[in-house]
Amino acid sequence: xxxxxxxxxxxxxxxxxxAVLPCMALLVLILLIAGSDASAQINRYLxxxxxxxxxxxxxxxxxxYAKALAKDPNNTAGMFNLGNSYYQQHQYDSSRKIMEATAxxxxxxxxQAAANYNIGNSYMAQKKWDDAINAYKETLRRNPQDPDAKxxxxxxxxxxxxxxxxxxxxxxKNKQDKKDQQKDQQKQDKKDQxxxxxxxxxxxxxxxxxxxxxxxxxxxxxxxPSKLSQQQAExxxxxxxxxxxxLQDKMKKEKGVPxxxxxxx
Length: 265
Description:
Blueprint: H1 2-8, H2 26-54, H3 58-71, H4 76-88, H5 92-105, H6 109-125, H7 129-142, H8 147-219, H9 230-255
């Protein structure tokens, strides 16, 4: 893991030293003085940026590198170190864009290799393993002996392999989960169907029972006499006797009572 951590360390170009040419003519001297002043400012900004970078003040370092590039947009050291400062601030896309420009602008293989190495690091930080692999391969094409690039290349390949296996496992798991869900749904559907059938059979049974009860009620005689109490029976008997007496009295009245006649001698 120590090698991996070292592999993630970004590489910074040292401060560029500019040689001062001897004076030959007044115009040349003026141009040299102007150029020397500009170079001195660029060197100062780069030096200040490197000091801030070493203090892990990456945002402030980026500001000084940007000032150096304002004086000289083609300054590869300023571009490279600006890209590093963005990387340390986790601005990986911005860092990579600057490193790509640095790789194109650099004319020596070591500078190109270092830029591609940091491009690979930015992809590694985003877990874009295939892109990181390509960047480290570009690094090794220009510097085949770079041990950090070799290590990170192997690490990126291993992580890409693990991701592929994980994706395959996830795909298989999702496929199995889908099958299990279908089986569960089929079981639930059958359970619902059985319940519906049971409810329907019960409804038919209840309907038949109700019909049978109705038919039974229609077949049974209506108005069955209820049992009388003793008092009611006596009252009914008295009433019948009274009716019978009235009926006998009426019959006697209609037939008449024979009258005993005396002889009239």
